[in-house]
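HUMAN: Mind sharing a backbone?

ASSISTANT:
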Amino acid sequence: QVRLVESGGGLVQAGGSLRLSCAASGSIFSIEAMGWYRRAPGKTREWVASITNGGRINYADFVKGRFTISRDNAKSTVYLQMNSLRPEDTAVYYCNTGPSPQPWGRGTQVTVSS
């Protein structure tokens, strides 16, 4: 099993930036891909971005051009650089693994004020 710990969230004004981190520990050899997800108040969790071990990256349309996912294999950490934040980006952000997802961590709260 892999343990995931998200960090880096906070309160930021619209147009601002934040950098989220996701540290993985445990059976990390089983990880083939990492992804970021978010759940806004009153909504279901949705996929945001993902990166494979081979470096293949995909983004949801609503973050393309604003968010950048990256990884540091030596630190077993995945990052999400979020720029040009909008109030609608307000959510709890989570990371998870692929192809087999792990139990969800606590996530990190991102709040964007208008």
Remarks:
- The first strand starts at residue 2 and ends at 7.
- DSSP finds no helices and ten strands in the chain.
- The mean pLDDT is 94.
